[in-house]
User: Fold this.
Amino acid sequence: MSQKKTNRTLVTIGLLAALFIGALDATVVTTATTSIANELNGLSLLSWIFSIYTLTTCVTTPIFGKLADLYGRKSIFTIGLILFLVGSVLCGAAQSMTELIWFRAIQGIGAGALTPVTFTIIGDLYTGEQRGKVQGVLSSVWSIAGLVGPFVGGYFVDSMSWRWIFYMNVPVSILSFILVFGFLHERFTKETKSVDYMGALMFTICISSLLLALLTGGEAYAWDSSMIIVLFACAAIFLLVFLRVEAKAKEPMLPLLLFRERKLIIPYMLGFFGFCVVAGVTIYIPLWIQNIMGYSATKSGLMLMPMSVTWAIASNFSGRYMFRFGAKKFMMLGTLFVAGAALWLYTLDMSSSYLQLIGIVSIVGFGMGCISTPAIVTIQNSAAESMRGVATSTNSLMGALGQTVAVAVFGMLFNSVVSEDTPTQMADGMHLIFIMILAIAVVKLFVVNFLPSTRKSVEKTSS
Assistant:
């Protein structure tokens, strides 16, 4: 093996390690919530451990993506990894719930760089069919993290302390830093850059206002409260200002032309709507199992494991064969699988079996795996090299926004029906969610047809 290939392999291992701990941290904390609340006496603030991580990750993801285009992937990845490492250490040492929330914000900022810059570096290192195979492996990391996260978190909580779910990031982060910083040799032309500070500020205010409204609406504040109305109004106003700023900026933080190219906008839309479906399935199927079928919380949690397995299998399968059959065919196939699962979900009733639910989540996972890898490869093949970072990070942002918007909308619909915790009323509330999921899946079927055929362009890239 040549030195170049050896370096590329070592960098890939380092990137996989960074992506894994970033993905793991989004799930592993759920198993430690009770221990954290008991030790830090902050039960009322518990939801903010998750909300602040989501908020800071969403806000910083496209910003880091653009900075990676301007200043190089290596330097921005390193900054993100250091922020994530510092945030992890501080989270493990937190002495109050308030401290933990602030430190999770720092961790979330770092995570905002890890995922998009990792995918961008892989897009730079590999071309053609190799890119599809490696991106398939990267996409499956999220599924694997979702699979092992609860077990890892449970082990540390039961055997040592919840603090170790954060401290375990330290050795992995150090390994990732050594491999990426030591062996990634990127060619990057140093020149004077024009940073779109105003665009970044307007985007931050807009997305922060929107996410705060979605994350606190229906819980901390009523949906028709003045606070939520002001937050939505603020998001709308600053979105208009942001669009105006980006149209005139020399180096826009989020180039608007990304949303004029069908090979980019269609995968973005598929990601947004796809993660809306995923959010509904991962929240309401466990709820159905516990409250309608009467199974334990453990069986409810295990229900989502098949989705993680089939997602990983499909991600690798589609990455390996998309260059033979075309990315569009895989994305259409995945969309059909998701729609089929949504239709099956719609037919659930109080006599449905546990095996039926396993079938539904397995099909959703396989469908999303067929979409995710071809989508990211299509985006990277379609975007100019100078915009590959921001194009990739925008894909991550759309998925995160899809999940956040879906959680808020589904929660509002569910609460509009359920006033008492009776099985019949909860089943009615969840059926309303299932109808909404089916409607979203139908929209996906409509959207995917607008994707241009990518086989020829992909073959050209791989030659």
User: Anything to note?
Assistant: Residues 257-463 form a domain with the Growth Hormone; Chain: A; fold (CATH 1.20.1250.20). The chain has 18 helices and no strands. The mean pLDDT is 85.
